[in-house]
Each structure stands twice: as C-alpha cells, then as structure tokens.
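Usage

Read records sequentially. Each one opens with the input sequence:
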Amino acid sequence: MSNKDFYNKLGSKIRFLRKKKKLTIARLAENANIDDYFLGEIERAEKKPSLDTLLKLSAALEVEIYKLFR
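and closes with the structure output:
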C-alpha cells in the first residue's frame, strides 16, 4: 500500500466515523481541539495528521485509535 492510499483510507475512515456519529466537520474539530479546515484536509488526504492529532480525533469520536486504521 502506498502512502497516498494509506492517507486516503485514513481520511475516509475518519469521515465515515464522523458521519456515523452525525457530527459536522466543525463540531468534530471543536471537540478534538483542532482547526476545522485542517480536519477537512485530513479527510481529503491533503494533509498528514500527527499521532497527537489522531489521538485527539479518536477521543472526540469515542473510538480506540486502532479503529481509525481498520
């Protein structure tokens, strides 16, 4: 799997989990204490999130971090 494929799948998974919880990008970003524009870039695989950002997102989505990678 290429890096691009990995980040595309990661972004898609975050988007899927966000929508499953009926959260807007703005609400999830606020809950995770990150910028909403940055979250959009992560979901579109335009930016690569740090481990710290992934931990914040998993906490805001109320899922274990490994579920972002499944």
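Summary fields computed downstream for this record:
- The chain has one domain: 3-69.
- The first helix runs from residue 3 to 20.
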